[in-house]
UniProtKB/TrEMBL annotation:
GO terms assigned for molecular function: 3-hydroxyisobutyryl-CoA hydrolase activity
Source organism (scientific name): Undibacterium pigrum
Organism taxonomic ancestry: Bacteria, Pseudomonadati, Pseudomonadota, Betaproteobacteria, Burkholderiales
Superkingdom of the organism of origin: Bacteria
UniProt keywords, alphabetically: Hydrolase
GO BP annotation list: L-valine catabolic process
Pfam family, one: ECH_2
NCBIfam families, per the entry: PRK05617.1
Cited PANTHER family: 3-HYDROXYISOBUTYRYL-COA HYDROLASE, 3-HYDROXYISOBUTYRYL-COA HYDROLASE-RELATED
Residues of the Enoyl-CoA hydratase/isomerase domain: 13-348
CDD domains linked to this entry: crotonase-like (cd06558)
Name used for this protein in its record: Enoyl-CoA hydratase/carnithine racemase
Length: 364
């Protein structure tokens, strides 16, 4: 078990506390394994009626996967062909699947930063989830910032947001707040941080058969604090739907260039900093994911991430962001005009025969 994942059972609730504050609870392989082991043990335990996952720090629920680890192991061997790297993504995606289909209420308190892999352990399936946000919530799928794509099931949950919101979030990596998250159906209820002690007291005393109902009732008092009129996504929804319905990133960029609004110009500036290739791959991923179930999305993403590390774009992105910290990634190709259809479709090629895929056993 990982020293950064603390667990306990109180009042028949299984508590998981992420406790790696210096790294904003970025997930290591040991943490993924600890989470999986814990959830597997609790799913048939009659003494556990629900799971509550949160952080020991107000700064972050979970900032994602440990990208410095990705870089270190990805550059230690040719083209990122590392057993540890392979194990991390296989086991992380299997954990995402386990959470999506968890047989008991799964409640995530997404206080602070929740990005990438943090979304993967919070965006459980509709039959089990309750996702809580606060005024501190900073939510994003920012993978294109580092030459990756929105994985951990991101293709599945982003492609199922209203209209083109998921496309916008996936291609820009923009950070959204609590009101945005609720509007986009990426969160369920809002609770201010001042009321978290009361929430924890409710959990310690509640005898409700379904804790989600009790928490929803508790949160109803604060719903006005995260209404749609406070959501940037709600205000810009029509523009997002129009612009991001494009069939290519080049077409989307052209629409942004033709739009003189502040939103369009800021969005264009943001996208010009991202990897042209991985934005194009992300758009194709999201379009394909709309017609795929969770398991198929995760298997596709597992193929994609292998191709991504072999290409090396993600290693360059991490280098620029956290290793050399020069914030000037040398993307390859450098421009959208240089991205070819063959380069994009190559990321979706099967990396294993169907019978040998590491996630072949996933169902649903």
């Amino acid at each position: 078990m990982s020293e950064f994942v603390l667990t306990s059972v109180k009042n028949n609730i299984g508590y998981i506390t992420l406790d790696r504050p210096k790294a904003l609870n970025s997930l290591s392989l040991d943490m993924v394994r600890a989470l999986t082991t814990t959830l597997l043990a609790w799913q048939d335990d009659q003494n556990v009626r629900a799971v509550f996952i949160h952080s020991s720090s107000e700064k972050a629920f979970c900032a994602g996967g440990d990208i410095r680890f990705f870089y270190d192991v990805g550059t230690a061997t040719p083209k990122g062909d590392s057993a540890l790297l392979e194990d991390f993504f296989t086991e992380e995606y299997a954990l995402n699947h386990l959470i999506h289909f968890y047989p008991k209420p799964y409640i995530a308190l997404m206080n602070g930063v929740v990005m990438g892999g943090g979304m993967g352990i919070a965006q459980a399936g509709p039959d089990c989830r309750l996702r809580i946000v606060t005024e501190r919530t900073k939510m994003a799928m920012p993978e294109v910032n580092i030459g990756l794509f929105p994985d951990v099931g991101g293709g599945y949950f982003l492609s199922r947001t209203e209209g083109e919101i998921g496309t916008y979030l996936g291609l820009t990596g923009e950070i959204i707040t609590a009101a945005d998250a609720i509007y986009a159906c990426l969160a369920d209820v809002y609770i201010p941080t001042t009321e978290i002690p009361a929430l924890m007291n409710l959990l310690s005393e509640s005898t409700a058969t379904d804790l989600r109902v009790a928490i929803r009732d508790f949160a109803a008092t604060f719903a006005d604090q995260a209404k749609p009129d406070a959501s940037k996504l709600a205000i810009q929804h029509a523009a997002i739907n129009d612009i991001f319905a494009g069939s290519s990133v080049a077409a989307i960029s052209e629409k942004l260039q033709q739009d003189n609004s502040e939103f369009a110009q800021q969005t264009l500036t943001t996208m010009q900093k991202r990897s042209p290739l991985l934005m194009s791959v992300t758009l194709e991923q999201l379009r394909r994911s709309k017609d795929m179930n969770v398991s198929a999305c995760l298997r596709m993403e597992r193929n994609m991430v292998r191709h991504c590390f072999k290409h090396g774009e993600v290693l360059e992105g991490v280098r620029a962001l956290v290793v050399d910290k020069d914030n000037t990634p040398r993307w390859s190709p450098a421009t959208l005009a240089e991205v070819t259809t063959e380069q994009v479709t190559g990321f979706f090629a099967e990396a294993w025969p169907a019978h040998a895929h590491p996630l072949r056993y996933l169902e649903g």
